[in-house]
Queue: 2 jobs
Job 1
Amino acid sequence: MRVQAYGARAGDKPLEPLQITRRTPGAHDVQIDIAFCGICHSDLHQVRAEWAGTQFPCVPGHEIVGWVAAVGAHVSVFKTGDLVGVGCIVDSCKHCDDCDSGLENYCDGMIGTYNFPTPDEPGWTLGGYSQNIVVHERYVLRIRHAEDQLAAVAPLLCAGITTYSPLRHWNVGPGKKVGVVGIGGLGHMGIKLAHAMGAHVVAFTTSESKREDARQLGADEVVVSRNAEEMAGHTKSFDFILNTVAAPHDLDALLVLLKRDGTMALVGAPATAHPSPNVFNLIMKRRTLAGSMIGGIPETQEMLDFCAEHGIVADIELVRAEQINASYERMLKGDVKYRFVIDNASLAG
Ligand code: NAP
Ligand code: ZN
């Protein structure tokens, strides 16, 4: 099936309308008409070949929501018309220890929603900046939010799970002091989720203009990280810091804010390395510097249900396909409140 999409033919070229092919649904496949797709900073890293190995044409997009249009003969859980989502994973080996544990995100055979090998044309996966997608039922999520919230649910499929998973893994909850660094797509979800989990949340931003917003999102305190005095006020006080920043920066300034046995988890994936932190900042208080990548399928469903229950969605700006390139430029300037979401109906022209 030929469908309209938006993607790039080279790393130094803007995204443009493209026609792509989707496979005919197999026995375990779900075909989804995509209503909305969020724009993640990872899309920009990949499509501009900032990360290694981008295949062109590249169609990004892994914050996908829409309706089931068709199901294969052996699909019993989903039916035509269901409201569903697809995040960053469309396949995995299905039999390793990670897959058996519901941690498909750490399976060595994980197939990402775009730019991963597939037998389908053209040989690598093509993402959600497209009219529809065909995905094995295991990687399809059920959406329980009201249908009129659908556009604002899309970012939960990456920004939501990428922040929810580490917050849960490091036991964020009542009595814990938690920092969220970088108030973009991921960071704004991190604030909302940590707040809903009952933690004391401190937002770290480089943008003075986001101070009030961060409070509205659920932060108990806001620190403008360029201000050394404000930073010093939080020395040795955090149980956990979630760092979502998309660019290399000084990690020591944040590590010293952790108390004994505290952890800072990096989820931001800048194209070039951070300067190495000072080892003594880790040794002296037995601090941990960690990382985390999206989340598994069961946990993604748990996160979606948690958000539906707590009335949590992303703060979004809806854009048309022809605004994607301009949206990338605005995202680079930190000028997004707080996630761009594509109205996929605009792909039809
Ligand atoms: P985003 O919307 O662009 O937000 C990043 C935020 O980082 C900015 O809004 C800004 O917040 C802060 N920042 C500070 N200095 C910056 C600089 N020099 N350049 C860019 N940002 C700066 O991006 P996102 O979609 O949240 O993604 C954040 C990072 O996470 C990206 O690297 C992305 O690839 C990565 N990611 C990782 C995973 C994973 O599984 N680990 C999943 C999704 C995305 P302030 O204005 O508040 O300072
Ligand atoms: Zn993403």
Note: Residues 225 and 231 are 6 Å apart (CA to CA).
Job 2
Amino acid sequence: MTKETRSFQTEVKQILDLMVHSLYSNREIFLRELISNSSDALDKLRFEELSHPEWDSTQPHVEKHIRLISNREARTLTIVDNGIGMTYDEVIANIGTIARSGTKEFLKHTKEIKDRPELIGQFGVGFYATFMVADKVTVLTQKAGTSEGTFWESTGDGSFVIDRQTRNEGVGTTITLHLKEFAGDDSVEDFTDEYVLRRIVKKYSDFIAWPIRMMTSREEPEVDADGKEVEGKTRTVEDDDTLNSQKAIWLRSPSEVTDEEYEEFYRHVGHDWNKPFDRIHYRAEGSQEFTALMFIPPAVPQDYYYRDTKWGLSLYVNRVFIMDNAEELIPTYLRFLRGVIDSSDLSLNVSREILQKDRQVQAIKKAVTAKVLKHLETLLKTDREKYQTFWKNFGATIKEGMANDFSNKDKIEHLALFQSSHSDTLTTLAEYAERMKKDQKEIYYITGDSLDQLKASPYIEKVKQKGFEILYCTDPVDEWVMQSINKFDDKMLRSIAKEGLDLDSEEEKAEQEKEIKDKEIEFKDLIATIQGAVSEKVKEVKISKRLVDSPVVLVSGAYDSSARLERMMESMGQAMPKAKRILEINPKHAVFTRMKELSADRQKEWAEILYNQALLAEGSPLDDPMRFSQQIAKLMTDHI
Ligand code: ADP
């Protein structure tokens, strides 16, 4: 078995098709993608070598580097690295199928991208970008620790050729682009031109830690044996030039790094083509010495909510790359951060397993967390508008910290923004507390799927009537988070959809007590009938103190889970025991006066309808929608 022609996965074909016909003007990014891949491959090899001392002996000791070779006549550009390389199977898996979620996301947007090619860069399609500039691409690669090479070739149509082949240079990867015809117009540059390549490398890849070399030639005056120039004669001198400064950007002083350099670096570590939203760059001294350069992305990444999306920072030890996606360096609720931690204290041999338990790592995580929270606090105080943009993107993530990180709960509570009945602008808890009325005892909130639903919900009627502010919590995490806040500044947080809502003053209560007693007597039989009709669904039917306009509402026990939480858990495949709730009725509503006059059978029917209405009002699905619909139809015809 050797040479084989295989078909690309359908999805890859779609991407390639887009690349081949791309009108994207910024095609030079293909080089950034290839250099970035080579740099990763070199990082990986250096790391793997730590645990494979035998590899060094199989390969003559060559300095790790990336090399560009251009050939103007043949119109080829070759990128060579002596990194980790790929096996035969890896080549098929990595550059024949769609493995990454980022690329999958790309596919969802192909139509959009066709119309707006400038979007291509945002998705970072990596290797496939080469087909924007080349009509044939070949790869020759050999994986570290193996002795056989793999050859791959494609013209970007539906298939690729794969074969086993010796790579004379040994371990590493060579990618050769057979460049498309150079029309010489302004829109496409000549990617065999030394100066063009120099400019692109400087622009996108200057910080790459490995040398990016290029063989260049220049004419010099010929000299004779005495070192004197021979008039009219020149000779060609070849130089192996390093094109990038290789400065690890995070180790430089922030005042010396330009915004553009930060932006390029963010694109490399963040796999995001947009400019970062914000950055945190500092050196920690003291018990733990490390440098951190972290970025907040400008928008929620495409694959952010996928379950298997990797996150975490890149870990370096004294400039040596150790691993990507080190989740141990930041808490999950800061998982939107992209960037690098470079520690002076950790051992080079640190593995993922060690990271999880390492006390130094925990100390770094603690320090980084404090720094980030402090940074956000300052942003909130100094630039509210910018902070709000951040919060809209990642607020739901940060909030998890209130439930998960007890030591920082207090700080995060001060960072949280909420929608509220006070105005359309988001509010902090502190601002809410300041606005609280004298007779307001607690901070009120309600959770639900949408702002509109909450604003119209029966739960808020009385609270609004009292003039108390309500926090509208529409993020799914709020179901967990709000419960865990419990108190802010000595003020209890209270869900207005739960039992125990205590809005009234002592006098009002005394007055109400009497009224309720009267109503309980007046509606005693009706309540008993309703209770009988819905006894399997609710644990109690009682006169409501919270309703103003709506006839009924379902209320959860103070310590029970909400209906929404139950639904969410269920949709995640984690059924939880359903807590029975209380059906509160509004005796002032005309429906009950009429109901009293009905026969017991009709009353039971109405009770069922009312219960279903309460479900609808809170956004819950009905147990039997068909039956409900028939009952309503009957009700309507009964009264014609
Ligand atoms: P990405 O780099 O974003 O994962 P690419 O399409 O650019 O996506 O590359 C896919 C994979 O192919 C890489 O993740 C890597 O595993 C492998 N790869 C690409 N280039 C190289 C290289 N020069 N050396 C080793 N592996 C490589």
Note: The mean pLDDT is 89.
